[in-house]
């Protein structure tokens, strides 16, 4: 009975404890333990497993600046959908079954993170906001806000991100772990805004709070890369060495050592032999067998700096063949080959094919791939028309010959190809000087063309294969008895030809596959009037399109003239002739040549053509007819843009600007073209074109629209300054009305270019020379702390710029009026400190209105303004 009673009491005790309705100590303890070590623990475990898999699947590209956060791979997320769903169910159970446990809010955080990973962004935001409002766990709330900040940055919602940053700046007692994540997320925020200084400052602060040595190593590497890009080699060298701590992956260690050596010695060394030996040693190191392409690629970049183009190209070709662990490196190698062939040789065909190769190694969603694809559009068209002209022209020339002459030419072509293959084999077999960049055989024997063993002699094998083909034709490899038996069977070869995705390896293994048969060559020659007419129509189109492309896109005016002249002389009845004359007129005008000859031809041959009207009336392009036509085309292009058919819209804009370059629609069309740039090209290129448009356009409505497009691309301080300028412009009437009163208040020199305005928006400026700026290591971080402590509600932003070679300036903005700016100045003067900040720099700080700052930026005379500042503000 006693045992039964004990068991009964235990059952009653745990049964009562299981209830989530009664909030007693026993119930809370039971639910806390059960929720933590059962549902919540398992849900979090599955979530972390997916995150770890994302991290492990990500391939770092150390040749580029590493991202602050490793991006989530949607493919990995989708592949783990079942595991994530299990985590969601467990977290939901922890909330539903253990309502009174202290792990409910943590489970909500898991649900929000699951929504974040699976791109349910609205649900994730709502969950995070719920936790922030309802949770009593400050540590969890702060962790949630930091994750919410990262989500806002991902979505490009920078205004919401700014509010979240302000909110977090008011939080106290943030743990080291959360502080680390906060500064890392701030670095991500600055990275997305293109604020290089902000990224460096935030990562420096993150380092101070990092606990994990591997994470420290990665941040140190990022900082080193950024300092190297800014030309601060000494800082880069220190951080690359720090990146070697914490047992980093071997590949990161390799790059850290390689780049540290570059910034320390290689870039400055005049001992070229020493530098080359360094690369040789890296290449020979067995540990770098999967990084040989990187070693040779870096060596190629070094030789490029020495101006040795031939050696650079040779090394780049070698690098493309070497093994490597990162396919993207191959993409960069081919991109570099394309760049050199375009810049040095204007070889558009080679450039196009190298860019094609680059795209096979770079993900199509990568910004680099998008940039290459855009660059390649004109080159694709060039190569298509160039190769079609070469082929069709040759075929038409052969069609004019007799059958005997055609056969003779085909035989001569095949013979020349055979000789070329033998020459290639000889080149491969020629003995070379020992070098790490040669592929040596394991036994190091001389395998030159003089080798006595047949199968070691490439030239002998090539000649033998060609001789066999001449005598017996293109027979499959098989024994005599099989060949005899085959005469009673199908003539189809019994051994299939090898199939390989790598065409290069196939051709190397079977060089005869490159040789066409005489029958194949002869079959391509047109043998009927219809086929000849088809080739002529293709030639006519290609000469015209190539000439047009060379003039407008590639700016090769002389080559454009050559192709267009060929068109008008070879195809005098072409319907494209009037436009060709017009293009020749424009080209000769650009070169300062005889453009009037084409005016005469147009008037004589095509008096009613629109192109004749254009050359006779140069201002006609701005007339009503041109305006109406360009309006129609603008509408078509805009509709295509709205539907997402960007290439079609670009084509219409291109032809419209070519045919009607100066109409009242031109500025609208140009802005639409810039909008297309924002969809198809890099962010930097989009911003560059918008800024140029704002500077040059005369239509204020369009300028305002362009400014609205530009704002999301600006950094925080740039945006604040721009907003301040706009506020100042809006208050210009008030400023004018009170000008006399303000001038009476000011004791400044009446000849000064500066005027005091109490109501104008102001900024605070800290100016120093480059050496002083280098000494102040954590100025931005200290300013943020100073603002959080003294001006938490002011939403101040900090930025930096170079006013001239002698002065770098740090700007704090905005202050709505002079009184607010002077209040900041006084607190700054008395309370602000930063390690390495000279007292002289602090003493010479000043506040300035936006209008006066524009005047100062023109004169660059800081002392003149300081004189005004002392008389007007103190």
From TrEMBL:
It comes from Algoriphagus halophytocola. Residues 492-511, 727-754 are annotated as: Disordered. The keyword S-adenosyl-L-methionine does not apply. This is Gliding motility protein. It comes from the Bacteria. Keywords: Signal. Residues 501-511 have a biased composition (Polar residues). SUPFAM superfamilies: TPR-like.
């Amino acid at each position: 009975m006693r045992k039964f009673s004990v068991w009964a009491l235990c059952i009653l005790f745990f049964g009562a404890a299981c209830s989530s309705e009664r909030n007693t100590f026993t119930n809370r303890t039971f639910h806390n333990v059960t929720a933590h070590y059962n549902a919540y623990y398992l849900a979090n475990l599955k979530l972390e497993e997916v995150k770890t898999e994302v991290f492990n699947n990500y391939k770092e590209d150390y040749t580029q600046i590493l991202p602050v956060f490793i991006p989530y791979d949607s493919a990995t997320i989708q592949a783990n959908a079942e595991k994530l769903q299990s985590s969601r169910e467990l977290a939901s159970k922890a909330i539903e079954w253990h309502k009174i446990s202290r792990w409910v809010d943590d489970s909500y955080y898991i649900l929000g993170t699951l929504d974040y990973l699976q791109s349910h962004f609205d649900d994730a935001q709502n969950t995070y906001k719920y936790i922030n409002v309802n949770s009593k766990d400050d540590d969890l709330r702060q962790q949630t806000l930091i994750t919410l900040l990262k989500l806002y940055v991902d979505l490009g919602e920078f205004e919401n991100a700014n509010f979240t940053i302000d909110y977090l700046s008011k939080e106290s007692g943030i743990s080291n772990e959360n502080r680390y994540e906060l500064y890392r997320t701030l670095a991500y925020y600055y990275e997305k805004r293109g604020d290089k200084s902000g990224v460096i400052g935030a990562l420096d602060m993150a380092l101070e709070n990092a606990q994990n040595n591997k994470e420290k190593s990665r941040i140190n590497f990022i900082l080193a890369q950024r300092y190297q890009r800014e030309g601060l080699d000494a800082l880069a060298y220190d951080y690359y060495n720090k990146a070697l701590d914490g047992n980093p992956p071997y590949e990161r260690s390799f790059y850290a050592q390689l780049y540290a050596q570059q910034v320390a010695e290689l870039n400055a060394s005049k001992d070229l032999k020493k530098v080359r030996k360094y690369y040789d040693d890296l290449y020979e190191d067995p540990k770098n067998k999967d990084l040989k392409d990187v070693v040779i690629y870096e060596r190629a970049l070094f030789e490029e700096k020495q101006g040795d183009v031939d050696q650079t190209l040779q090394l780049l070709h070698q690098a493309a063949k070497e093994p490597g662990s990162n396919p993207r490196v191959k993409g960069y190698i081919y991109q570099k080959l394309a760049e050199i062939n375009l810049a040095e040789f204007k070889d558009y065909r080679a450039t196009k094919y190298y860019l094609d190769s680059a795209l096979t190694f770079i993900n199509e969603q990568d910004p680099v791939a998008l940039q290459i694809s855009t660059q390649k559009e004109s080159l694709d068209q060039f190569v298509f028309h160039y190769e079609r002209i070469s082929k069709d022209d040759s075929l038409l020339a052969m069609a004019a010959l007799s059958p005997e002459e055609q056969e003779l030419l085909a035989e001569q072509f095949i013979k020349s190809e055979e000789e070329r293959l033998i020459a290639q084999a000889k080149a491969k077999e020629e003995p070379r000087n020992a070098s790490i960049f040669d592929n040596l055989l394991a036994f190091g024997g001389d395998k030159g063309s003089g080798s006595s063993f047949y199968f070691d002699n490439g030239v002998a094998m090539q000649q033998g294969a060609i001789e066999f083909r001449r005598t017996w034709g293109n027979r499959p490899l098989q024994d005599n008895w099989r060949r005899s038996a085959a005469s009673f069977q199908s003539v189809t070869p019994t051994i299939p030809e090898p199939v390989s995705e790598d065409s290069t390896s196939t051709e190397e293994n079977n060089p005869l596959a490159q040789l066409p048969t005489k029958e194949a060559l002869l079959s391509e020659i047109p043998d009927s009037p219809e086929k000849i007419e088809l080739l002529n129509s293709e030639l006519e189109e290609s000469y015209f399109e190539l000439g047009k492309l060379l003039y407008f896109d590639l700016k090769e005016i002389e080559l454009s003239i050559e192709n267009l002249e060929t068109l008008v002389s070879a195809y005098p009845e072409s319907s494209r002739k009037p436009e060709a004359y017009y293009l020749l007129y424009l080209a000769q005008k650009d070169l300062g040549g005889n453009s009037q000859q084409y005016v005469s031809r147009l008037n004589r041959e095509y008096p009613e053509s629109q192109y004749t009207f254009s050359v006779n009336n140069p201002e006609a392009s701005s007339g009503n007819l041109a305006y109406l036509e360009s309006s129609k085309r603008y509408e078509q292009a805009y509709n295509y843009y709205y539907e997402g058919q960007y290439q079609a819209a670009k084509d219409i804009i291109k032809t419209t600007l070519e045919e009607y370059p100066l109409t009242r629609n031109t500025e609208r069309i140009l802005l639409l073209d810039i909008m297309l740039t924002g969809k198809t090209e890099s962010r930097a290129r989009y911003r560059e074109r918008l800024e140029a448009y704002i500077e040059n356009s005369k239509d204020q409505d369009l300028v305002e629209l362009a400014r609205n497009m530009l704002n999301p691309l600006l950094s925080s301080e740039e945006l604040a300054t721009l907003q301040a300028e706009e506020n100042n412009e809006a208050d210009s009437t008030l400023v004018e009305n009170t000008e006399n009163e303000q001038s009476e208040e000011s004791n400044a020199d009446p000849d000064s270019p500066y005027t005091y305005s109490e109501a104008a928006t102001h900024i605070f400026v800290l100016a120093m020379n480059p050496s002083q700026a280098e000494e102040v290591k954590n100025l931005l971080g200290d300013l943020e702390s100073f603002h959080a402590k003294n001006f938490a509600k002011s939403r101040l932003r900090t930025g930096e710029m170079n006013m001239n070679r002698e002065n770098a300036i740090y700007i704090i903005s905005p202050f709505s009026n002079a009184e607010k700016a002077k209040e900041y100045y006084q607190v700054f003067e008395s309370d602000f400190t930063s390690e390495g900040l000279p007292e002289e720099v602090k003493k010479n700080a000043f506040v300035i209105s936006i209008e006066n700052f524009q005047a100062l930026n023109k004169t660059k005379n800081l002392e003149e303004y300081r004189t005004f500042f002392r008389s007007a503000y103190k």
